[in-house]
Amino acid sequence: MLKDTFNRVHDYLRISLTDSCNFRCQYCMPEENIQCMPSSKLMSSQEIDHLSSVFVSLGVKKIRLTGGEPLVRKEFAEIAQRLAKYPVKLTLTTNGVLADKFLPVFKDTGIKSVNVSLDTLKPDVFYAMTRRNQFNKVWQNIMLLIEQGFHVKINVVAMEGVVENEILDFVALTQDLPVHVRFIEFMPFEGNRWVSNKVVTATQMLKLVRESYQIQKLSDDINDTAKKYVVPGHKGTFAFITTMSEHFCGTCNRLRLTADGKIKNCLFGKEEIDLLSVLRNGGDVEPFIFKSVQRKYAVMGGQFEHGYKQTTATELENRSMIRIGG
Q: What DSSP letter does each residue of 247-294 carry, written as one string?
């Protein structure tokens, strides 16, 4: 069991398969000097399998595959097949544009839940945000996933100037579609031009929703990051991930493996331990996993001592989001 000094049990592992992506979302990566890691630096399929087996033996019950964009990793199908043999819930976060090509893989490996990142419902805004003209393809694949019976969540980063104009349109989707929309407060990472006054909080978004809808609060599980709501009579739900305005660190059960095999015990943590090098040198990674868990801070990687409103992005030590993994 992976228990930290604050008595939090960690049974959820997020594995980044690559720091490459076929989109260029402004909140995820720096605009300039984007250089992906060479394949020699990435965990191989076999190494991902081996490290996963160790984490599962230590109590991990859920694994989420992330990126970059995980579906651009040429070994994605092999990796998913390898992980399917473990007694875990296997899930995926994707930008959706390649999802149709991998439906058989999803079904064969038991992936039943897919998170799709989609920050706008307007094709022109989508192009401005991602620098790619792929809105229609992403939307078609969301519909395809729903039709094929997948549990589909839409992850919406609440970008100032965008979410205020579209939040009601996203909530309206839940009327006839069994889709679960999650609005994520804008978070700071290297090169994404975050400033605290650009954070549109869950409180602000809820106010906008309540002006048009009667809503009902749903119960949240102990390790949930999302605060869930429903409009009575709607098939789907919506939720808020309140990372900045109301952290949920007290019940965090998550660990992360970056694409180059570093364990991060917090999304905002600056400390990393290189498990891949230990593995490649023939060492035992298990003590280093325990070491990482024991070093975990109580709140937000120990980097927001005075709260997000008094924090500037330049004060933080961390990777860009694409190099961490979603």
A: --GGG--EEEE-TTSEEESSTT----EEHHHHHHTT---HHHHHHHHH
Answer whether residue 237 is part of any domain. yes
Number of domains in the chain: 1
Contact between 109 and 84 (Cβ < 8 Å): yes
Question: What CATH number did the domain enclosing 87 receive?
Answer: 3.20.20.70
Q: Are 241 and 223 in contact (CB under 8 A)?
A: no
Distances (CA, A) of 61 to 88, 151, 181: 5, 18, 24
In angstroms, the CA 216 to CA 27 distance is: 30
47 closest CA partner among 290, 322, 280: 280
pLDDT, tens digit (0-9, with 9 covering 90-100), for 106-132:
999 999 999 999 999 999 999 988 888
Does any domain span residue 143?
yes
Query: Rounded to an integer, what distance in angstroms lies between the CA atom of residue 212 and that of residue 210?
Result: 5
Digit-coded pLDDT (tens) for 171-209: 999 999 999 999 999 877 655 565 666 789 999 999 999
Cβ-contact 288, 275 below 8 angstroms: yes
- pTM, to two decimals: 0.93
